[in-house]
Design goal:
mainly beta
Length: 123
């Protein structure tokens, strides 16, 4: 079993930055591919970014490419999402997730989910 807790959300203005943290309880954190997803009001949960077991591979949604950066620290059991140049369209609840599968953008492949952290970007 794995528990995930997100933190670092908040309210910022357009162009601002936030750094989200996902803290995992699993002893073998390094054995899980990690991902970030988000759900905007009235929309489906969508993929944001994912990172491989040791961090050597990353993949981003087109909408955040070049603005967001995913990383992980296996020794600390944490994953991060650095978000720069935020836009109002980035407003959403952000979730971290973990899967035993290879790097993936498909939410159906993720087994463990956090409760989410709210990000609000005002114009």
């Amino acid at each position: 079993q794995m528990q995930l807790v997100e933190s670092g959300g908040g309210s910022v203005q357009t162009g601002g930055s936030l750094n989200l943290t996902c803290s995992a309880s699993a002893r073998y954190f390094s054995g899980f591919t990690m991902g970030w997803f988000r759900r905007a009001p009235g929309k489906e949960r969508e993929f944001v970014a994912t990172i491989s077991l040791r961090g050597g591979q990353t993949h981003y949604a087109d909408s955040v490419q070049g603005r967001f950066a995913i990383s992980r620290d296996n020794a600390k059991g944490k994953a991060y999402l650095q978000m720069n140049n935020l836009k109002p369209d980035d407003t959403a609840v952000y979730y971290c997730a973990a899967t035993g599968a290879l790097i993936s953008s498909h939410k159906e492949q993720y087994r463990y989910w956090g409760q989410g952290t709210q990000v609000i970007v005002s114009s």
